[in-house]
Design goal:
The complex is a heterodimer of chains A (about 210) and B (about 180).
Chain A lengths: L9 E2 L7 E9 L4 E8 L5 E9 L5 E6 L5 E8 L1 E6 L5 E8 L8 E9 L17 H76 L1
Antiparallel strand pairs in A: 2-9, 3-8, 4-7, 4-9, 5-6, 5-8
Chain B lengths: L1 E11 L4 E2 L8 E6 L5 E7 L2 E6 L8 E6 L10 E9 L6 H8 L3 H69 L4
Antiparallel strand pairs in B: 1-2, 1-5, 1-7, 3-4, 3-6
Classes of the chains: A alpha+beta (about 210), B alpha+beta (about 180).
C-alpha cells in the first residue's frame, strides 16, 4: 500500500455552519500542521489548544484569515484560547508549528468550535415561551456541558503529569545503573593507573 | 463510542480548484488501542465514515493513510475530517425518529447520555490515578534502593581499593 504524503493538511469539518472539532494530534519535530475551516461571516468561533506531552510543552500557533491576514499569533505557548468573529466568509487556517524543536514531537489537543452547539431537533422551532421544565432542563444541559469541559481539561492535565512521572521513573533507573557502572569503572581505573605509575618507575630504574 | 467521517478531494490543476469527487482515491484507516492492538484496519473509498467503541481506557491512535497510486503523488489532496467522541457521536435526530420521543423526552435522553459520559470519565480518572500512584511509588522505591546501594558500592570499592593497593605496595617492598 503506497503512502502518499499529503501536501495539504486537514480541513476541520465536513458540515457547514455550526460545528465543533475536538481532537488530539501528534506534531512531529520540525513540522508544521495546518487545519482549515470554511467559516461564514458573523459566526462566533473559539479556538482552544493545549500541549499535552513533548519537549518543553510549547508550540507556535498562527491563525490566518482568507486574505492571509494574521488574526492570532503566539510563540511558544503551552495553552491558550482565542475567540473571534470573522468579518469575511472564507477559508480560515489554524497552524501549529514545532519547527523550533529538533527532536521532540508533541501531542497537541485542539478544540475548534464554530458557531453555537447544534440544538436538539425540534427544540427552538416553536415561538412560544419554554415551559419551566424545558428551561430547567436546558440549564441542566448547559451545566453538564461545562462539567464535561472541566473533565476534559482535567484529563489533559493528568495525562501531562503522568507522562512526566513515567519519564522520571525511567530516567531514575537509567541514572542509577549508569552511575553504578561509572563508579565501578573509575574505581578499577584509578587502581590500575596507580599501579602503572609505580610499575613504570621500577622498570625505568632497572634500565639505568 | 467514536465516529469519524472524512472526504477526500484531489486538486485539479486544470481548473485550479478541487474536483468535487475523485473515484479511485482510497483511504486506509487504522485504529490502534492503548495496547497497540489493531481494532480497525480497513480501506474505504474517497468518502467514508467509521465508528468504533473503545473497550480499554487510554490513548487510541487513529491513522489515515492515502493509498492513491503513484500517478497522484506530488499533487495536493484536501481531506475533510470530522471526529466526534462520546456523547457528541450520538445523532439525536435519528434517536428521536427511531424511538418516537417527544422533545422533552429527547432532552432527558440527552441529559442521561451526558451524565453517562461523565460517569465513564470519572471511572477512567480513577483508573488513571491508580496507574499514576503506582508509577510514583515505583520511582520512590527505585530512588531508595539506588541511594542505599550507592553507599554500599562506594564503601565496598573504597575497601577493595585500599586492600588491593596495600598488597601491591607490600609486594613492591615500598611499605
Amino acid at each position: 500500500m503506497e503512502k502518499v504524503w499529503l501536501l495539504v493538511a486537514v480541513a476541520a469539518s465536513v458540515l457547514a455552519r455550526a460545528a465543533a472539532v475536538e481532537l488530539t494530534f501528534e506534531l512531529p519535530d520540525n513540522a508544521k500542521e495546518c487545519f482549515y475551516e470554511e467559516i461564514e461571516k458573523g459566526t462566533e468561533c473559539t479556538l482552544e489548544y493545549q500541549v499535552v506531552t513533548g519537549g518543553h510543552y510549547d508550540v507556535d500557533v498562527l491563525v490566518e484569515g482568507p486574505a492571509r491576514q494574521i488574526l492570532y499569533r503566539e510563540i511558544k505557548q503551552q495553552y491558550g484560547q482565542f475567540q473571534f468573529t470573522p468579518d469575511h466568509t472564507g477559508t480560515y487556517q489554524v497552524c501549529f508549528s514545532n519547527e523550533f524543536s529538533t527532536f521532540s514531537h508533541k501531542l497537541i489537543y485542539v478544540d475548534f468550535q464554530v458557531g453555537d452547539e447544534p440544538q436538539l431537533p425540534g427544540v427552538g422551532e416553536h415561538f412560544t415561551a419554554m415551559t419551566q421544565m424545558e428551561s430547567s432542563s436546558q440549564k441542566v444541559h448547559e451545566n453538564l456541558n461545562s462539567i464535561i469541559d472541566y473533565q476534559t481539561h482535567h484529563r489533559l492535565q493528568e495525562a501531562q503529569s503522568r507522562k512526566r512521572a513515567e519519564d522520571l521513573n525511567e530516567r531514575v533507573l537509567f541514572w542509577a545503573v549508569g552511575e553504578t557502572l561509572g563508579i565501578l569503572v573509575i574505581a578499577v581505573g584509578q587502581v590500575m593507573i596507580l599501579k602503572n605509575f609505580f610499575a613504570d618507575k621500577k622498570s625505568n630504574q632497572a634500565a639505568y | 463510542m467514536v465516529t469519524g467521517n472524512y472526504k477526500l478531494q484531489l486538486f485539479d490543476p486544470r481548473t485550479g480548484g478541487f474536483m468535487p469527487s475523485s473515484p479511485g482515491l482510497g483511504m486506509h484507516v487504522e485504529i490502534r488501542d492503548p495496547d497497540d492492538k489493531i481494532i480497525l484496519s480497513r480501506v474505504y473509498s474517497s468518502e467514508g465514515r467509521f465508528t468504533f467503541t473503545s473497550h480499554t481506557p487510554g490513548e487510541h491512535v487513529i491513522c489515515l493513510y492515502s493509498n492513491s497510486t503513484k500517478w497522484f503523488s506530488g499533487s495536493q489532496l484536501r481531506v475533510h475530517f470530522d471526529i466526534q467522541v462520546g456523547e457528541h457521536a450520538i445523532d439525536y435526530a435519528n434517536v428521536a425518529q427511531k424511538e418516537k420521543l417527544t422533545e422533552l423526552q429527547l432532552r432527558v435522553r440527552q441529559l442521561l447520555d451526558q451524565v453517562d459520559q461523565i460517569a465513564k470519565e470519572q471511572n477512567y480518572q480513577r483508573y488513571r490515578e491508580e496507574r499514576f500512584r503506582q508509577t510514583s511509588d515505583s520511582t520512590n522505591q527505585r530512588v531508595l534502593w539506588w541511594s542505599i546501594s550507592q553507599i554500599g558500592i562506594l564503601v565496598g570499592m573504597g575497601f577493595w581499593q585500599m586492600r588491593h593497593l596495600k598488597s601491591f605496595f607490600e609486594a613492591k617492598k615500598l611499605v
